[in-house]
Amino acid sequence: MDPLTVGIIGLVSTLVLLALRVPIAASLGVVSSVGIFIIFAWRPGAEFAAQWAWQPTFSLMANNPYAFITSSTLSTIPLFIFMGHLAFESGFTTDIYRAARLWLAKLPGGVAMASVMGCGGFAAITGSSVACAAAMGRIAIPEMLRFGYSKSLASGSVAIGGTLGSLIPPSVLFILYGIFAEQSIAKLFIAAVIPGLLSLLAYLLVIYIWVRLRPQDAPVPDEEITRSARMKALGDCWAIVVIFIVVVGGIYIGLFTPTEAAGIGAAATLVLGAVLGRLDLARIYAALKESVFQSSMIFVIAIGGKLFVNFIALTGMAADITNWIETSGVSVIAVIALIVLLYIFLGMFLDSIGIILLTLPLTIPIVESFGFSLIWFGVVVIKLLEIGLVTPPIGLNVFVIKSIVGERISLEAIFGGVAWFFLAEVFVLAAILFIPALSLFLTTFV
Predict the structure, then answer these.
(1) Please, are residues 119 and 96 in contact by the beta-carbon 8 Å criterion?
(2) Distance between CA atoms of 87 and 122, rounded to whole angstroms?
(3) Calpha distance 64→72 (Å, rounded)
(4) With the CA atoms of 8, 12, 15 and 21 taken in that order, what torsion angle do they form, in degrees rounded to the nearest 10?
(5) Residues 6+ apart with CB under 8 A from 298
(6) What are the tens digits of pLDDT across the range 37-67?
(7) How far apart are CA 303 and CA 311, in angstroms?
(8) Which residues touch 391 (CB under 8 Å, ≥6 apart)?
(9) What are the extents of the domains in the chain?
(10) pLDDT tens digits, residue range 148-184?
């Protein structure tokens, strides 16, 4: 059988399995393994011969995932996840929200703005959008409801702010992208700084406009906030600022690699939390337990993704698509638009890690054929995945918020709140697409 035919059948089978809610790791792993076996056993112009396929298939299934999992670069993921959970257990992330709330409370929509700022600070430590939305949802939404904020604004601002965990470095998705695209993780982190800040500012602007149009949705809190309280809250943020400067600053100036930065960041968070009396053995155990669970899940999916990459490479599908695009005369803008639509469509139904592992074997060769920077493309992909986290019908961050608020806020109200921010998302995405310097400028200094 023609390898290209096997590849098309395999890709369709994977999408069907995912639509049936089969776990992403199982979908990628099973389809890839069967597809690789068929390619080796049923060579073009020859009869099906299983004896030809057993040895190379098992060799590829054993060696490639093992080499991938044992790579030092992948160890960055559990270390950054552990650092994020330690920061949460230490209350460092809560400090950022409290300071932002005290400083912004008197502005129109100030508590919602503080929630987004808190999400930005949390994102700078955790690298996970879901963790960011979950943590800030428990902290910020009850606070906004207590001050009389509308349910849509309270939940929507946290759901959209949580997506910053994917874009603001360090980010687990950027690490996975860098590994599979064979790009510098340090450059990807730095490339995301300006787009991340631009997204945060866009969200703040949307909240300001929302409250100007509907002031009843965000009453100004009737509480006395002294200057000393503001300064104390700001001073309490010093620990998380130090951690961020050490991690991202160390990478930026070339003092250490992202892997070393993850280890140093986790160690620094642990030491600071213990010295300040915010971490005990129970909290450390809780952080370690959650980190092991999340890391294991990511690693299992990554193994399936690695097999899928090998399967697509054997089919030659990516090369055939690239050749077809080059010979058909399709414009660059049309190709990029199709890629954008592909990611937005998949983002409506699949989780971010699954989308990355499913699409990169096909999209990266296409982008490379046009001579685009894969660092720039990485920022575009992560921004699209960020949009997918709040896009109906299955916006993961929205359902995370729903699981936290329970019956207090309806799913429709949360999606209604998020809808206000879609125009900002389109604006930021367009800026990243048409002004590559937003992503690439800082990378020239790394």
Answers:
(1) no
(2) 9
(3) 15
(4) -140
(5) 77, 172, 176, 353
(6) 888 888 766 777 787 788 888 888 877 777 7
(7) 12
(8) 344, 347, 348
(9) 1-70+302-315, 72-279+411-445
(10) 899 999 999 999 988 888 888 888 889 889 988 889 8
